[in-house]
Amino acid sequence: MTIMKPLQRLPHMSCAQLTTRFAFLSLVLFLLLTHDELSYSNNFPYYSKGNNGNDGLILPQHDPHLASLLKVSAFDKSLYDTFHHPYNNYSCQPRKIHLSQGTNVEPDSGVVNMTLSFSLNRTQCGGSQQTPSSSFPTASSSNLHMVVVYGRGLFPDGRIEQRAADSEHSVHFDFTSPVTGELYQSDWIQHVTLPNLIGGSHLYWYRISIVQQQSRHLPQLHLPPSFRPVFLRGSLYKVGETPTYRFRTPPLYHQPTSLALVGDLGQTENSTKTMNRILQAASLDQVTQIYDNMPPPVTQLLIAGDLSYADGVPERWDSWLELMQPLLQTLPLSSIPGNHEIECDNITHNVFVPYETQFRNPNRIADPDMEAPSDTYIDTLWHRMCNTPSQFFGHYNFGNAFYQYQHGMVHIIALNSYTSILPGSIQHNWLAQVALPSVNRDATPWLLVMFHCPLYTTFWGHNDEINPTLMKSSIEDLLKKHQVNMVISGHDHAYLRTHPLYHDKVDSTGQSPMYWTLGAGGNREQHTKGYIHETPEEWVAKRDNDEYGYGHFFAKNKTHAHLHWMRDGTSSSEIVRDAVWIENYYFVHNSTN
């Protein structure tokens, strides 16, 4: 993957090499000069409809499920830019755009890498559904070029960088649905690194362009009758382009930090209401309408498992990523797998494949280490299915399964509830010997740990499952020893905040982790059906199984943070349903010794 840097003295090159270099520079220059400017609202992160904003939303014909979801989405329909003219006319349009933090902010230089992910449809961009998934249309075979143009500040201000997303950096997967029995071949999924950005909540813009060279390979593109190519120069023309989007880089270690946290999201109207609230929290003007004591805009979204509720139907991953694109194209995401990400392939029994391939979480330790469960083990599961079992012992390490990263004043450790974390396991060794000992509380005073299955629950339904039972016995002492501030989970479709808690008892000294369950994102399974005990347990600080929403964690400084439970209400007065200031017991404890 080549980064185009400012022109400088060229080394000795042949005529052919010079021609190739200047041809690519000309391509990038014309992408910049021929882009139709859009008018933007100053209220980041909202955007205009584009040149013909009054044309209305053109629902995608390729996905009736997504089209029906868009009709009831709580998102402003103008945020679905790519379904409007002129973008809906492109034959090879980048879709399912989402961002993630790539690396930690470097302490000395303050630079950080981000990852931009997007997909290209295999049929519309030069292949066919019958083409083997390994046959990506490379530049040599179809002359397809992918270019991400980005810069700092408000477009078009800021220093511009260019990156060519080459075909060898594409990933894809084949999946035989356990529900329909049909073979699904994914889009070509791109994960592009945007390197050396300036940390500190700085504003950046970006745009993705897809360019085709006119040649004998042109018929490979499946062009609609209405397609009118935008010619750049000679044989170059655009076959795909996005509007210009914006995002903020992670805050520096000493800066106040705002995180949005949610679990069990799904893709319903309630899901989009939750995500719309989070989108508002990423906008400075929207934040001032909700809070009296205003935190900075949210710069990171954490999803504690059960993202799309695809449940073995991979087309639902496509619709979820498109449905959530207005948020994910501007707010970086990190996630962990839940039971709805297990998704056994009907033939190979490979698990977690769509989840692992679609995303790039921060600071990947290594490529994923995954094994398919045996037929014998599958026969022991509920209904003999390993699609979305709540109790499951799999083998999925590294990759997107577990990792750690720093975001502003917060150190986040993400774990996998569905691979072994017993003492001596790969995940337990990494947690105990690498992740927890590496935390620098001077740089990141707040320590959060996130995994799907809660260790403590007041709700009926998942209260006697084996995965959290074994996890609790394996790591609760570690969480206490390393003075973890909060443990974030989903799984229960409800809201729970505990008092500081250790071995089933309230820690009156406040020197134990709090547990925060945020599984009421809005999925189609609705809320939990009730409580284990009608009277709340003594360690319950707040519980609710009637409302949907998300959690907001605001680290004001190294000693104090504010937690909000943000309901999907219709007015500002109805939104905040739970709010509390907490002390960082790491510093309180150490200051008394």
TrEMBL record:
Claim: Manganese is one of the keywords in the record: no
Pfam families registered for this protein in UniProt: Metallophos, Metallophos_C
Residue ranges of domain Calcineurin-like phosphoesterase in the record: 259-495
MF-aspect GO terms: acid phosphatase activity
Keywords: Signal
InterPro entries: Calcineurin-like_PHP, MPP_PAP, PAPs-like, PAPs_C
Domain Purple acid phosphatase C-terminal as annotated: residue spans: 512-571
Keyword check for Glycosyltransferase: no
Signal sequence region: 1-41
Full protein name: Metallo-dependent phosphatase-like protein
Native source organism of the sequence: Nitzschia inconspicua
